[in-house]
Specification:
The protein is α/β, with parallel strands linked by helices. It has 28 helices and ten strands. Strands 1-6-3-4-2-5 form a six-stranded mixed beta sheet, sandwiched between helices. A hairpin with a 2-residue loop joins strand 9 and strand 10. The chain is globular and about 85 Å long.
């Protein structure tokens, strides 16, 4: 006979204190650890405010729902994994700080009571985190004994197929001190400062630094408050469906689930029904690794990949065309589409996962193409339509030659969108693109046909002279990248958009020499200066290192070889900077004047307009 639901009001310390053979489990279908520093800051402030208030009532931290369906030694966290994980990180940060405090407290009668209190807190936390017996824990931190205790298995294990950093919590909890954990945790590629760390370590570091601001007495009080005066309602269920139903009814304190969380959970459940759970989990892990790389270079995350897949499926299945033949641009939300409108798609978990992997791999393959890098400087919606085209490609034969005709079609239209005073939702953009997407997914339609469609569409709705006037007044940045790309093509130069670059103002936007530079440029007033400094012809792409070294110097310095330890345009790999060096370097005291900006803007405008109109 199945057990009934078992709710209990528990102190945090008692909730986390498990029996010897018991541990928390994060199921395969759960989301990854997603709490960030803002969530931790709110939690910390709530605890501090409560500890300072002297309130004798217990502080309530919500409901935890646990699935005990397998057995009573595995507590599957249905609701509460974010809070449970965070409390473990907080307790570890408190323990490390308590160890430091115990070692520095003087050995005298005045400090004896506080020292005993901290020793008691130390035993309590080590008993929770490592199931250590009180008699095995020394009064004062002992490096050897503590290292042995900390190396024990942790009380929470994740099986989530969405968690890419499964060992992070273990690394932090098993490290004897903060520095050891910092040295061992993952550093994410392409990220800087604290962003290079996972949520696990960022949150642990946040607590560790906040605790540093506490006095030893406050440290003792706050630790006792957390373990003895803060409570949760722990609800145990021995039926998974019942537990999930309660979660849907009661969840209010956790983070809202992303659409991808719901979709991956349903795919995983379906894979289980079909007996392919292991195969699916392996594929999803492969997908997650691909997505991780794409996130690192700001191309896509799992939700955007799913959105692209939805666009593709809707187009292939002709869901974007009404019975009358008119284009239907109304798009459902991800969750609704996959779990309500077209839930039959989720009955093929292996196929869906394989399709998503293919798309992610293609994005990774093309991410360094210059045309792709320039396109991604424009409206994000371009990815949705390009992705549909990708699905029809053979992964083994992808090249710039293959994809550039379609990428440049999108570049042309989104360059117009960047200029004109109408939005993406206009039928001149969104409706047209939905119509063309039907041809993107049809492998019988050639790139020449699609290119012709874009050319005819642009020429039908916009006049070239009008676009030229908009280009002459343009003061944004997206078209600076396009101009550089087109200039390189025009002159047979290579164009590689590196990882660290800036938009450089040839005539500086600011700086100590501005008055003199403005005078050299034959610009008489500040208003006139403002009207010229952001024009297309005054902006180029430049390596960050070069720009930071010489960005506000005179033009003659920028195009010269060196200025002491600074570097100029001559060391740039970008084509327009190199062309400026070639044109002006041999000139005696070259100036960059108003007329030069006008001429460069006219050339850039003409170049872009010709590209737009085909």
């Amino acid at each position: 006979m199945a057990k009934n639901i078992e709710p209990k009001l528990k102190k945090i310390g008692d909730y986390l204190k498990l029996d010897e053979d018991t541990k928390f489990i994060i199921p395969e279908y759960q989301r990854a650890y997603s709490w960030n520093v803002d969530n931790c800051d709110k939690l910390w402030q709530d605890i501090i405010d409560y500890a300072d208030s002297g309130n004798k009532d217990r502080y309530f931290f919500g409901t935890i729902i646990i699935n005990c369906e397998k057995n009573d030694t595995e507590f599957g966290l249905i609701d509460g994994q974010q809070r449970t994980t965070t409390f473990l990180l907080l307790l570890k940060a408190l323990l490390v700080r308590i160890n430091i405090a115990i070692n520095r407290i003087p050995n005298d009668d005045d400090s004896a009571s506080l020292c005993r209190g901290l020793q008691e807190r130390r035993r309590r936390i080590m008993g929770i985190l490592y199931k250590a017996e009180s008699e095995d824990i020394s009064d004062k931190p002992d490096v050897t004994k503590d290292a042995e205790i900390c190396s024990r298995d942790i009380i929470l294990e994740t099986f989530s197929i969405n968690e890419r950093y499964r060992d992070e919590l273990k690394i932090i909890l098993q490290a004897n001190d903060f520095k050891t954990a910092e040295n061992k945790v993952i550093k994410i590629k392409y990220k800087q400062k604290d962003n290079r760390y996972t949520n696990f370590f960022r949150n642990y570091k946040f607590f560790y630094e906040k605790i540093q601001d506490l006095s030893d007495s406050q440290l003792n009080n706050v630790t006792k408050t957390i373990t003895e005066s803060c409570e949760v309602i722990e609800i145990k269920s021995w039926q998974i469906d019942q537990a999930i139903t309660m979660f849907n009814s009661l969840n209010s304190d956790g983070l809202p689930l992303y659409d991808s969380d719901i979709i991956s959970a349903k795919l995983y459940q379906e894979a289980g029904k079909q007996g392919v759970k292991k195969q699916f989990a392996k594929l999803w892990e492969q997908l997650d690794a691909c997505i991780n790389e794409l996130e690192g270079i700001n191309i896509a995350d799992i939700n955007s990949i799913l959105m692209q897949y939805m666009y593709y499926k809707r187009t292939v299945n002709k869901e974007t065309v009404r019975d009358t033949g008119a284009i239907n641009v109304t798009t459902p939300g991800l969750r609704r589409y996959f779990t309500e409108d077209k839930k039959s798609l989720l009955t093929n978990p292996i196929e869906v996962c394989s399709d998503l992997i293919k798309l992610a791999k293609i994005w990774k393959e093309v991410s360094d193409y210059p045309s792709i890098k320039v396109l991604l400087k424009f409206n994000e919606n371009s990815k949705l339509f390009l992705a549909s085209y990708f699905f029809g490609l053979d992964e083994a034969n992808i090249s710039e030659t293959v994809i550039n005709p379609i990428v440049e079609c999108l570049l042309r239209l989104f360059a117009v969108l960047e200029l004109v005073d109408i939005g993406y939702s206009s039928n001149k953009f969104k409706t047209f693109l939905f119509g063309e997407e039907i041809k993107f997914v049809d492998q019988n339609v050639t790139a020449d046909v699609i290119t012709s469609d874009f050319t005819n569409h642009i020429r039908t709705y916009w006049e070239k002279d009008y676009i030229l006037s908009l280009l002459n007044d343009y003061n944004g940045n997206a078209l600076v990248y396009l101009n550089e790309y087109l200039f390189a093509k025009e002159n047979g130069n290579s164009f590689i958009l590196g990882t660290k670059y800036d938009i450089e103002h040839i005539m500086p936007y600011s700086g100590g020499n501005l008055q003199e530079i403005r005078k050299d440029a034959e610009i008489s007033s500040e208003d006139e200066f403002k009207s010229y400094v952001n024009k297309l012809g005054n902006k180029i792409i430049l390596e960050e290192k070069i720009n930071r070294a010489i960005g506000n110097e005179w033009f003659r310095t920028k195009v010269s070889t060196k200025l002491l330890n600074k570097t100029g345009y001559i060391d740039s790999e970008y084509p327009i900077a190199r062309a400026l060096v070639s044109n002006y370097q041999s000139t005696n005291k070259p100036y960059w004047k108003k007329g030069d900006i006008i001429q460069a803007t006219d050339k850039a405008s003409d170049r872009i307009a010709k590209f737009i109109f085909g």
